[in-house]
Design brief:
Elements (H helix, E strand, L loop, with lengths): L8 E7 L2 E6 L4 E5 L2 E5 L1 H18 L9
Antiparallel strand pairs: 1-2, 2-3, 3-4
């Protein structure tokens, strides 16, 4: 097997089983329990915007703005 160096990650946010990290190569890592999604920053922003929109549909009293 190849010896690969992993990018160092920096924790951006997290609570309970949810974590968001950025790594040296620029990817965003969204961890939910044992599942980690590795996304480009633009894909993560789109995902966050969609989640915020869905949350607003469920509870319009919560105001989230994602740019």
């Amino acid at each position: 097997m190849e010896d690969r160096k992993q990018c160092e990650r920096r924790r951006l946010a997290g609570e309970n089983s949810f974590t968001v990290e950025s790594c040296e190569c620029g990817a965003i890592h969204l961890t939910i329990g044992f599942l980690t999604l590795r996304m480009e920053p633009c894909a993560y922003r789109e995902f966050a915007r969609i989640i915020a929109g869905a949350l607003n549909e469920l509870d319009p009293t919560i105001s989230l703005t994602i740019h």
